[in-house]
TrEMBL record:
<dbReference type="InterPro" id="IPR003593">
    <property type="entry name" value="AAA+_ATPase"/>
</dbReference>
<dbReference type="GO" id="GO:0005524">
    <property type="term" value="F:ATP binding"/>
</dbReference>
<dbReference type="InterPro" id="IPR003439">
    <property type="entry name" value="ABC_transporter-like_ATP-bd"/>
</dbReference>
<dbReference type="GO" id="GO:0016887">
    <property type="term" value="F:ATP hydrolysis activity"/>
</dbReference>
<keyword id="KW-1278">Translocase</keyword>
<comment type="function">
    <text>Part of the ABC transporter complex HmuTUV involved in hemin import. Responsible for energy coupling to the transport system.</text>
</comment>
<dbReference type="Pfam" id="PF00005">
    <property type="entry name" value="ABC_tran"/>
</dbReference>
<protein>
    <submittedName>
        <fullName>ABC transporter ATP-binding protein</fullName>
    </submittedName>
</protein>
<keyword id="KW-0547">Nucleotide-binding</keyword>
<feature type="domain" description="ABC transporter">
    <location>
        <begin position="4"/>
        <end position="226"/>
    </location>
</feature>
<keyword id="KW-0813">Transport</keyword>
<dbReference type="InterPro" id="IPR017871">
    <property type="entry name" value="ABC_transporter-like_CS"/>
</dbReference>
<keyword id="KW-0067">ATP-binding</keyword>
<dbReference type="InterPro" id="IPR027417">
    <property type="entry name" value="P-loop_NTPase"/>
</dbReference>
Length: 245
């Protein structure tokens, strides 16, 4: 089943289209890594698809009434600071708002998935930056929406938390949900994502399996780097190796 369909989605900032006629679909079971250099339009695409920015073209989420949309898609925004001096459990439970606050089991599941059980009663404002980031991911997970859109979810996390978070997202996809996550770490994306969408100057320039999207020419043309690929018993490895320009 298709969880997100964009057709010619265009988002302008001033007169300039920063998302330019993007068409794509995301189905159940997909973990899509949204990649591209700084300023490529990743955040704008996610926000436009959700209706948080005015857009032209179509997004299937925009066809839904706000309440239905809140149940169809969870969103993890880029900002990671928690301003409210309340418990971790209270922050994560905010993810249940589209379900009128019901579903304490979903809050428990989200805390467990993000390894936050020991932090449940801690004041969220007294956690480190990376810990707060994990709490906000858990809040998005607690929504238990069929689709999760996450803007740079692993930024600022330590290696263990990065790997765990990518595993959690891969698990969600394996369970039949859909995940779209913008991500700068191409090595993590290559290992965990089922598909990569490469955005450049607001347009999709490649869309497919990670090995295919992270081709020598795409890396050179879009990122200005060269990279190293290997297939290992532990799965695919990709590492950017050098700057070309
Ligand atoms: N409020 C704004 N007003 C004008 N231009 C904006 C605004 N927000 C973003 N832009 C421009 O839109 C383009 C896309 O920005 P966006 O934040 O979507 O990129 P991104 O791919 O998420 O980048 P990054 O990887 O750096 O987070 C950039 O060129 C940016 O300068």
């Amino acid at each position: 089943m298709t969880l997100l369909a964009l057709r010619d989605l265009t988002v302008r900032r001033g007169t300039c289209p920063v998302v330019d006629h993007v068409s794509l679909t995301v189905d159940e079971g997909e973990f899509v890594g949204l990649i591209g250099p700084n300023g490529a339009g990743k955040t704008t695409l996610l926000r436009g698809a959700l209706g948080l920015l005015p857009s032209l073209g179509q997004s299937s989420l925009l066809a839904l009434a706000p309440k239905a949309r809140a149940r169809a898609a969870a969103f993890l925004p880029q900002g990671r600071e928690i301003a409210w001096p309340v418990s971790v459990e209270t922050v994560v439970a905010l993810g249940r708002a589209p379900h009128l606050g019901q579903g304490t089991e979903a809050v428990d599941r989200a805390l467990t998935r993000m390894g936050l059980e020991p932090y449940r009663d801690r004041k969220a404002t007294e956690l480190s930056g990376g810990e707060q980031a994990r709490v906000l991911i858990a809040r998005a997970l607690a929504q238990e929406a069929p689709l999760l859109l996450a803007d740079e979810p692993v930024a600022g996390l330590d290696p263990e938390a990065q790997l765990r978070t990518m595993e959690v997202f891969a698990d969600l996809a394996a369970e039949g949900r859909g995940v779209v996550a913008s991500i700068h770490d191409l090595g993590l994306a290559a290992r965990a994502c089922t598909r990569l969408v490469l955005l450049h100057r607001g347009q999709v320039v490649a869309d497919g399996p990670p090995r295919q999207v992270l081709s020598e020419s795409n890396l050179a043309d879009v990122f200005g780097v060269r990279g190293f690929h290997a297939e290992t018993p532990d799965g695919p490895v990709f590492q950017p190796m050098g700057v070309l320009r």
